[in-house]
Amino acid sequence: MSSTSTSTSTSTSTSTSTSTVTERGEGAPASWEVFLRPRRGLAHQHVGSVRADDAAMALGRARDLYIRRGDPLSLWVVRSDSVHAVSPDERDPYFSNARHKPYRYPEQFAPLTVEGADGDPHQ
Amino acid sequence: MSAQQATAGAPTTERDEMEELQAHFDALIAAGETIEPRDWMPDGYRRMLLRQLAQHAHSEIIGMQPEGAWLTRAPSLHRKSVLIAKVQDEAGHGLYLYSAAETLGVDRADLLDALHRGQQRFAATFNHPALTWADTGAVAWLTDGAAVINQAPMTRISYGPYARAMRRVCLEEAFHVREGYDLMRALCEGTEEQKRMAQDAVDRWWLPAVALMFGPPDTTTGGADARTAAIGASVSRRAMAWGIKRHTNDELRQRFVDAVVPQAERLGLTLPDPAIRWNEERGHYDFTPVDWEVYRRALGENTHWARQRVAHRRAAHEDGAWVREAAAAYAAREEAAGRTEEHA
């Protein structure tokens, strides 16, 4: 996530799922992550961040910055320090439940028809 | 700590861990994968990125000034709308890049502070004044044209947030180059006086574009003396190994010259370099090598315009202080009153 600072110099990352907050100078406005839904049928996408003191200003700044062109449908702003994240470096063991489990995929099993996968209406 | 280490259960030294992290980082770079904010990265990589991001962001917002000075004097409502859109884009590019820089754990307020104190640099290109209306066209066509060639490969830079910011930037730069070229074309098809104005602007903006937008020569074929080339080359090699840079400065500079010479010919303008001619053997245009040291001295941070740019930027920041204070006070009051800013 943008604007969530992380100590890149330490050799190990913490294994808890945390969002580290950028330390702000006195009175510096908060950081907000910006999400845009560019068109119908798509989910909101993270596009970057803005600084603002409140949500209304964050929305206004996000609009001015990320929507100078095009015809987007929707805009979200979320306080950066409200984003909780798992680091890519923590893939092991945090995401390990997704790995080495071939039996979670359909092609690991016998096809339903003699034509094989091609004749399978479920594929 | 990786699962491997955990299952092995062996006590690992800090050095082993560092080596493993470094190997993981190197493998990602080698595979052409991006490095993302919470990934481990070598300090040198992070420093080089931050330095480049800061300079890049500063250049975008300082770059608003030469053209911005013409906003109130645009010759038509159409040209004025176009110029406003272009200058807004430059502000936006700066903000995309400050946002990307913040993913490395810095605060944009500190970067701006460093700019205001003269501790971080910006492209010296923008230390040139825009003297006539034609300059706004020459800047957009030549310096933005140089930027497009420079920045297109940066959409594949190894640091994810930087690459994503550059994709947005490049989409918008294409508009800048076209509108600049269109402005120059209108002048070149106009009166003799307008054409002279266009030529004069090109005479003044050619060198800033071809020299400063690409940085110092980093190969001897770029015309640098051996020492300058060696220094440039070692920096470029490091940046290339890390995927922060994809081509040498001189390679990109050549690409720019090859693109612009035919464009200038179509406009009927003369690029102010008598050495420009097609080299059949090389398949490129020859041009006068950049004498970087001469250029550096003439464009040091101490010139009138360099000081002017920073002073103007600082004044704008200070003049805006009351707005920032008012916004903070309003947000604090609303928060204290327990009101949230719900928007329909």
Automatic annotation (TrEMBL), chain A:
<dbReference type="Pfam" id="PF06243">
    <property type="entry name" value="PaaB"/>
</dbReference>
<dbReference type="InterPro" id="IPR038693">
    <property type="entry name" value="PaaB_sf"/>
</dbReference>
<dbReference type="InterPro" id="IPR009359">
    <property type="entry name" value="PaaB"/>
</dbReference>
<feature type="region of interest" description="Disordered">
    <location>
        <begin position="1"/>
        <end position="31"/>
    </location>
</feature>
<feature type="compositionally biased region" description="Low complexity">
    <location>
        <begin position="1"/>
        <end position="22"/>
    </location>
</feature>
<protein>
    <recommendedName>
        <fullName>1,2-phenylacetyl-CoA epoxidase subunit B</fullName>
    </recommendedName>
</protein>
Automatic annotation (TrEMBL), chain B:
<dbReference type="InterPro" id="IPR007814">
    <property type="entry name" value="PaaA_PaaC"/>
</dbReference>
<dbReference type="InterPro" id="IPR009078">
    <property type="entry name" value="Ferritin-like_SF"/>
</dbReference>
<dbReference type="GO" id="GO:0010124">
    <property type="term" value="P:phenylacetate catabolic process"/>
</dbReference>
<protein>
    <submittedName>
        <fullName>Phenylacetate-CoA oxygenase subunit PaaA</fullName>
    </submittedName>
</protein>
<dbReference type="InterPro" id="IPR011881">
    <property type="entry name" value="PaaA"/>
</dbReference>
<dbReference type="InterPro" id="IPR012347">
    <property type="entry name" value="Ferritin-like"/>
</dbReference>
<dbReference type="GO" id="GO:0097266">
    <property type="term" value="F:phenylacetyl-CoA 1,2-epoxidase activity"/>
</dbReference>
<dbReference type="Pfam" id="PF05138">
    <property type="entry name" value="PaaA_PaaC"/>
</dbReference>
<dbReference type="InterPro" id="IPR052703">
    <property type="entry name" value="Aromatic_CoA_ox/epox"/>
</dbReference>
<dbReference type="GO" id="GO:0005829">
    <property type="term" value="C:cytosol"/>
</dbReference>
